[in-house]
Design a protein that fits this description.
eight-stranded mixed sheet; 14 helices; globular; Cytidine Deaminase, domain 2; binds zinc ion; Rossmann fold; alpha/beta; seven-stranded mixed beta barrel
Length: 454
């Protein structure tokens, strides 16, 4: 089989719903149409699924165990609606082979799809076209394109927000039972969860500083084997109070943080595939890595980069975990008073309908101040304390980073286990004693209709 060049990515819960609906009657094939938005990045195309249309029973001409015919009126209805939607340029039809466990496209499917694709092409309808076939257990997908006036297809991978919802693939069966290094984690998480973690999961860390380096180390210890580290910063001596894997010598040599962490991770697990991007998070290379990731872990220290990373995550439909810490100190009558010492972890999945913007975690006013082209204006807002970041020496300690970094990887691990409760926002405070709690009150204040995540 060809290697996937495209990804069809579903929002949270949508593939599960689609499979339930289409496969509930195993005595006959069923049909649905997905609409979505396609984006090209590097050599890949990524389609983010929006809505699903199910036909009425009366819109089938023929629906048997091995055959399916739809009325044209259904197809026209969907196309007409898709054309009115601003963010839709792709139609994907889905049908089932309910009589089998494994899924493959039949010769009849090829004929039907080529006919439909040629019809779209001849009518110059502005849609990309793809298809999915689902069996009881698995599925296959492809995107059609014209090559010298001949229809050809690219294999597409079907991806979901969490591995729990993903279709099983046979390639995931790497044998972990003999792996001594994973044996204790395996006892804790169980074989199924461990397999999901080790299978083709690629985790991108946007920001590899005091917090990111802790998360990276936790990921490798947890068993994740494919990591991409993005950061354009150099390790300096002031980071050595908290930077995991960094040595005095690394700081002397002014090594890039991504390199230092990568060598540390590979020393722990030589099997781990750790890629580095020594560039800003808004570079094309970083964007491509994020677009193809299964999760993005965000821990950069300013509003602009957090905004850019989340934008990539939402654009390409990649789920995101944001981690952040804060220490605020006041000097009163010569006394050093900690007024806030806390951190939080937020899980943002496509389809959950909230993001760092509408949760009030990214401040758009600060964002424009931070990126203000006039250095004088920028310096002024920084001196007023509105903008944190590289130019301000913030208090930072490893103990707080360690707690929040571990919380972030716990939250991530929970996304791979059926029996764990998903908490979108977890807060930790340690200035008035210690406490950790899920923040649910934020959701009652959530404004609807956020331009970023709806
Ligand atoms: Zn078929
Ligand atoms: Zn939002």
């Amino acid at each position: 089989m060809k290697k996937p060049e495209c990804i069809i990515r579903f929002p949270q819960g949508k593939l599960l719903e689609l499979r339930r609906e289409l496969l509930k009657d195993s005595s006959r094939e069923a049909f649905a149409v997905l609409i979505g938005k396609k984006r090209e990045i590097g050599e890949h195309c990524i389609i983010v699924v929006g809505d699903v249309y199910y036909p009425q029973p009366s819109e089938y001409i023929n629906q048997s165990r091995t055959q399916l015919r739809m009325k044209k009126s259904f197809i026209y209805r969907v196309m007409a609606e898709a054309q009115t939607r601003p963010n839709v340029d792709t139609i994907i039809d889905v049908h089932t082979h309910p009589f089998t466990d494994r899924a493959w496209f039949s010769q009849q499917d090829d004929v039907d799809e080529i006919n439909y694709f040629q019809f779209l092409d001849s009518e110059e309808l502005p849609f990309s076209y793809g298809s999915i076939v689902l069996s009881q257990k698995t599925g296959q997908a492809r995107m059609w394109y014209m090559n010298n006036l001949r229809p050809e297809y690219k294999v597409a991978a079907i991806k979901t927000q969490t591995a729990l919802e993903a279709l099983p693939t046979t390639e995931n069966e790497s044998d972990i039972l003999d792996d001594e290094q994973k044996s204790r984690t395996l006892l804790s998480l169980g074989v199924d969860t461990m397999r999901r973690i080790i299978a083709d999961q690629c985790i991108v860390l946007a920001g590899v500083g005091g917090l990111g380096s802790v998360m990276a180390e936790n990921l490798v210890h947890q068993g994740f084997e494919h990591l991409v580290l993005i950061d354009n910063d150099i390790l300096d001596h002031s980071s050595l109070n908290r930077f995991v894997g960094g040595t005095f010598d690394d700081a002397e040599k002014k090594r890039p943080k991504v390199e230092v962490v990568a060598s540390h991770l590979q020393a722990i697990n030589p099997q781990a595939n750790v890629e580095t991007v020594f560039k800003q998070v808004d570079s094309l290379e970083a964007e491509e890595k994020m677009a193809l990731a299964d999760w993005i872990l965000l821990s950069t220290d300013n509003h602009t980069s957090r905004y850019q990373v989340q934008k990539a995550a939402l654009t390409y439909g990649v789920p995101l975990i944001s981690a952040g810490v804060n220490i605020t100190v006041r000097h009163e009558n010569g006394r050093h008073v900690i007024v806030d010492r806390s951190g939080e972890v937020i899980v943002v999945r496509l389809g959950d309908h909230f993001c760092l913007n509408c949760l009030g975690r990214i401040n758009l006013a600060l964002l424009s101040a931070e990126s203000h082209p006039d250095p004088e204006v920028r310096a002024k807002t920084i001196s007023r304390g509105y903008v944190l970041g590289a130019e301000v020496k913030e208090p930072a300690v490893k103990t707080l980073n360690s707690v929040i970094g571990a919380m972030a990887i716990e939250s991530l691990t929970n996304q791979y286990k059926e029996d764990m409760i998903h908490e979108p926002i977890l807060v930790y405070e340690s200035h008035h004693g210690l406490c950790m709690y899920p923040d649910r009150s934020t959701f009652s204040l959530l404004e609807t209709g956020c331009a970023s995540c709806h």
